[in-house]
Write a structure and sequence with these properties.
Blueprint: H1 27-41, E1 48-50, E2 60-63, H2 65-74, E3 86-96, E4 100-105, E5 113-120, E6 122-128, E7 134-140, H3 142-154, E8 164-168, H4 171-176
Antiparallel strand pairs: 1-2, 2-3, 3-6, 4-5, 5-8, 6-7
The protein binds zinc ion.
């Protein structure tokens, strides 16, 4: 821990700036991506991380390989588990299902609160990868929820802004259960 900024930091409330596609392979952006992956790897329960969470107001988020494994355990068809964390730059949710479900959610920047949010069950996202190649990916269940949570971060929104039944659960409480 340490690299991830917490909820009162104003960077989490900014509208993050787009990354010009031609700059994706620059040293500066590659360093941001590497820092994000490292910060995410340090968090045992981390499934996704947006750049503002390490203090960088750019439109980038990373979904950990672990999230895909969890989605598979959840029984969601996800295709192939990626070799590495997946990087989404200038992401745009191009469509999502009208049907919403209540999803239990937490956030690495909102320790240690948890609550239920309403999220679309399915979402399709278009973004650039870390090599500057545009791609599109559809998701259901956990991954679709992660896409929505992370895009919210890029727009200055935290899940506690709209979650219900928010409660604090410290890791030591969870272990006791
Ligand atoms: Zn978050």
């Amino acid at each position: 821990m340490g690299a991830i900024v917490q909820k009162d930091n104003p960077v989490l409330r900014q509208l993050a700036e787009p990354v010009p596609p031609e700059e994706i392979t620059s040293t500066r952006i590659q360093k941001v991506i590497a820092d994000m992956k490292a910060a995410l790897a340090d968090e045992a329960d981390g499934v996704g991380l947006a750049a503002p969470q390490i203090g960088v107001p750019l439109r980038i988020f990373v979904v950990s390989k672990r999230a895909f494994e969890l989605a598979e355990e959840e029984g969601t068809p996800i295709g192939k588990i990626p070799e590495d964390d997946l990087v989404f730059i200038d992401p745009e949710i191009t469509s999502c299902s009208k049907k919403k479900t209540a999803v239990p959610e937490g956030c690495l920047s909102v320790r240690w609160l948890y609550g239920n949010t309403e999220r679309a069950e399915k979402a399709t996202i278009r973004a650039y990868d870390e090599h500057g190649k545009q791609f599109q990916r559809g998701a259901t269940g956990l991954l679709a929820h992660i896409f929505q949570h992370e895009v919210d971060h890029l727009n200055g929104i935290l899940f506690i802004d709209h979650a219900k039944d928010i409660e604090e659960m410290r890791p030591e409480d969870i272990e006791k259960q």
